[in-house]
Amino acid sequence: MKHGEQPYDFSHGNTINGKAFDMNKPMFAAKRGQYEKWVISGEGDMMLHPFHIHGTQFRILSENGKPPAAHRAGWKDTVRVEGARSEVLVQFNHEASAEHAYMAHCHLLEHEDTGMMMGFTVA
């Protein structure tokens, strides 16, 4: 790098719903006690994204368009997304305010650190 050049900013290389992580702004609010079907899409991105959700355990409905393997049945907190869509049935039973938001993120540290993380509230 030459003197005066700015290094490339990798902080927004990955996104969720088209947005990089913003520590000061939760992405959405989930309803406490209500079941929700979350669709986690990696369409167009052949990288592996082990997607982790805090504050709950969920049932995997599908991973990349296929029913989950036998060892992936039962309660989980991470779903595998690789070039397709994975769906989970999730429920949050505890409140999470904007000041203490829950997180969801790719479990690959490089992806998380470059924006593939989100905060969300539960009320």
What does this structure look like?
The structure is a single chain. This protein is mostly beta strands and 123 residues long. The protein has a single domain (34-122), classed as Cupredoxins -  blue copper proteins (Immunoglobulin-like). The protein has one helix spanning 109-113, and strands at residues 28-30, 35-41, 48-53, 58-63, 75-76, 78-82, 85-91, 102-106, 117-122. The strands form two sheets. The protein has a five-stranded mixed β-sheet with strand order 1-9-8-3-6. The radius of gyration is 16 Å and the shape is globular. It starts with 27 loop residues before the first strand and ends with a strand.
Task: Give the topology.
Elements: E1 28-30, E2 35-41, E3 48-53, E4 58-63, E5 75-76, E6 78-82, E7 85-91, E8 102-106, H1 109-113, E9 117-122
Parallel strand pairs: 1-9
Antiparallel strand pairs: 2-7, 3-6, 3-8, 4-5, 4-7, 8-9
